[in-house]
Amino acid sequence: MSDMVRIESSWKQVLQDEFTTDYWRDLTAFVRAEYTSTTVYPPPKFVFAAFDACPFDSVKVVILGQDPYHGTGQAHGLSFSVPEGVRMPPSLQNIYKELQTDLAIPIPEHGNLERWAEQGVLLLNATLTVRAGAPGSHQNKGWEQFTDAVIRVLSEEREHLVFLLWGNYAKKKGEHIDRAKHLVLEAAHPSPYSANSGFFGCRHFSKANAYLQEHNIAPIRW
Description:
Largest sheet: 4 strands, parallel
Strand order of the largest sheet: 3-2-5-6
Structural class: alpha/beta
Strand content: 5-15%
Order of helices and strands: HHEHEHHEEHEHEH
Shape: globular
């Protein structure tokens, strides 16, 4: 089964046990049927884009999202990111506002975060696919078990990573991270509904870089 998984080779190696499980078989059957019968985002070639852009040994920071965007042309496999030319979603606008406040970085004209991924930021959604216009439609099908395994293997086999957990869903998903080995930063979700409740002012970007530099790891050029 793992031979059929088109995921970057270092990830395929550390996650190989997942690809032989019953849940993975059921998940792939479900997702395949969904792509065949309805509109699903992101396009198939981008489902594992977060992993392809950021190999296992390159990860420095993990930013955890929930679902891919469910609107036309938005999702391209990286949490919170949209391709250039696509209108910036409100959560991403708020992420950029906090960056500007925290590190005086001017707000970019586009929402493509690939440049973060290429520096070691794993932009991981808990669920890697979604039906068009139907947020949460691919939850509880197995993706969460897979992404739990991703977090577990990073926690166990790497050290001095920074996990940015925004919102209650992400905080719950990060419960099993070894906080003796890694820095876990928690805040409210950057969505307009909650950003004023503790996301704005969290300074996670400068804190992440300070921690990386303390451990002789090159900071992220946010």
